[in-house]
Structures
1.
Amino acid sequence: KSYQVAVVGATGAVGNLMVRVLEERGFPVKDLRLLASFRSVGKTLSYKGGCIPVEELKEDSFKGVEIALFSAGGSVSKKFAPIAAAAGCVVIDNSSAFRMDPNVPLVVPEVNPDALVKGPGIIANPNCSTIQMVVALKPIYDAVGIKRIVVTTFQAVSGTGKRAIEELRNQVEALVQGKEPKMEIYPRQIAFNCFPHIGAFLENGYTEEEMKMVNETRKIFNDPNIGVCATTVRVPVYYGHSEAVNIETKAPISVERVRELLSQAPGVRVVDDPANLCYPVPLDAAGKDETLVGRIRLDPSVENGLAMWVVADNIRKGAASNAVQIAETMMARNLL
Ligand code: A2P
């Protein structure tokens, strides 16, 4: 069987990649509908050697569509995802709009595929930083349990979208020419800088992005007691989020055993031979769907402590590829 698929936000950084990933992975698409704002009407995108026109997203855009991948921001999802679901679509939504809704599954196929239910309805794609962290931690969680996670992220600008990628490029160009850098998207200069400010600051002193990592990790592991303390930092990198992840496991586990478990884990590649300059970096993760894990070592400052470095392409595994993998998993499990 092949499916009628729509991509909402098809002209954006993630939406465009969703189209590429559908093509690359050979998802059985019968017909592909590309939706964006009125600003994109007249544009076309290439797909399997042909050209598909971009249409304006409207309430009646989902007639006959079976799977809709959304990546056009929270407000578009809030309005249109329920409309698409009511029209009979399985909606896989990359925004944060429905992630914490108790009736909406929040899914990383390598981690909690059993949370998927037979469509139509909305399925949420987790936050990019959460996805790569839980992919790397799942084998350890299953083996010995995890009590607490302390994570610091180094997040690429592509997560903010196309205009943020341009802002970094423009600021770098301006600065090397001795000109004043323009700031439109980010609160602080991103070129040659970094700032611990992703999403708005909340009353508890954390940012929205940090609390997403706390709440989504608990929901995905179905473990309200797991402790998570996150510091999320934007860095001048185009593609690929890095994370320093420090965990306290419930039972002891050796570094060798962690390496062995991670080498067998789906979606993970261990890159851990520092003496030969072999550790994950965003430039190596970019363009790949795997989560790279390295610098695996004991944390002697606490009982059962482990430290590691986790890198993945934030708009692939962190967004577009995870969304397409959700569709593939539903297809394989007869849930579409
Ligand atoms: P458009 O290109 O027509 O503005 P990014 O995350 O890279 O900034 O991309 C955002 C995506 O969401 C784009 O495809 C953008 O379309 C789309 N989008 C933004 N606002 C709307 C809207 N109100 N209706 C439909 N699509 C929208």
2.
Amino acid sequence: NVLILDFGSQYTQLIARRVRELNIYCEIHPYNKIPESLENFKAVILSGSPNSVRGELVLHPDLSAIKGKKPLLAVCYGAQYLAHFSGGKVAESNTREYGRANLSYIKTSENFFRNIVEGSQVWMSHSDTIKELPTNAVLLASTTDVENAAYKIEGEDTFGIQFHPEVYHSTDGKQLLANFLVDIAKVEQNWTPDSFVDSTVAAIQEKVGNDKVVLGLSGGVDSSVAAVLLHKAIGKNLYCIFVNNGLLRKNEFESVLNQYQGMGLNVKGVDASDRFLSALKDLSDPELKRKAIGNAFIEVFDDEAHQIKDVKWLAQGTIYPDVIESVSVNGGPSATIKSHHNVGGLPDFMKLKIVEPLRMIFKDEVRRVGASLGIDKELLGRHPFPGPGLAIRILGDITPEKVRILQEVDAIFINGLKEDGLYDKVWQAGAMLLPVNSVGVMGDERTYEKVVALRAVESTDGMTADWVDLPYKFLQKTSNKIINQVKGVNRVVYDISSKPPATIEWE
Ligand code: XMP
């Protein structure tokens, strides 16, 4: 078990993911909330930070229970922090230190650099630099521009590195983490999808006993994996509810419901399309639409849950990135861009206890766990789909006719991606129905019909995204199909905006 102390770096979650890839369990905690008991942590990693050890906003935790007592790896800010407060000198750097660099010197006698040779590429991202090491430190590596790229404190298993081993572009980064965690800290590599399944099943059985549990399925990866895991633990005591809000993809309700039943889950499909559509009637503001859908979902789910006698628990597919407490380094609250209704978040009045079997794992691990549970590859590889569904892809007010049009367009686009082997190259794709008509000509007739926009993005977590350069031939074919086959659409455009400054969804 490894403790990662977060100083607010954009890469902290990446450190955790790299550690997990080594089959080692780790947890991220804010730098100022160090767990009281450190007994279970065999090693500690300090993350980077956008702050400076020289600034007013220096983040200054008390590491006396850690430094010199447990193997400690300090990355970037962490390395500067340790150097600064142990008698070294940190100053603003006068050369640019962003991006690619190569280790021009390595003290090869150290286990820390086992299997890493001079010339190894590392990734830098810092504006301060360690000018002088503390007197009890030994230099372990340098780059051409950064003399003190890595150091060790004598007599301790304490290491500082200026570069970021967690990013993909540090080619030997994972090896370095393995050297530190496995060779030096002697942490066991026993965190695998299978071991996760075994321990989680046991933990659920212990926690829930013979109680009944209700879970809202969405058709997405997280709730599906959570359901199969719970089903493995408590069998028929798991009651799944899959709500059709009338805003799903074409035929999705029936096909996903069948798939769930085929997996042996005890699932009830509830078609509440009319209820959602009437809740949405005449609403065109995106936030009001989200709220109306969130509320309708709670009502429907509540009605259904009340029909399950003596249900005690609500299961949710919450994953680790939703749980990690974010470190706000400047103290300011972040702006609400969209009130992402996580459909499944329920009000207190339901008085159910919560069980979240995936709350400590990342999305890629959810998929690996799903595979280890034997869940269909196709289901595990599904693109994310927003809880409010097509409602936030139909700009403005929603009518059954608009839903029908968009379902048709979306199906042509998504099936086309699958047919051409492009689906798995895209992180998320969908179509937007715009609230404008445009003039066209079909045969000899003037048309005045809807415009749709296609969007396909690559991303790792949805926080940032870039549009995908889909082949022109594919776009051409798809556009033709849509205009020829979907009545009411006479124009197709392709969205070439990145996030930021745009967002993935249009509303
Ligand atoms: P944006 O549009 O904010 O989307 O760039 C980022 C990711 O979040 C999804 N999304 C939502 N998911 N409820 C959800 O469950 C919502 O209200 C919602 N809005 C956006 C979006 O599909 C993308 O994957």
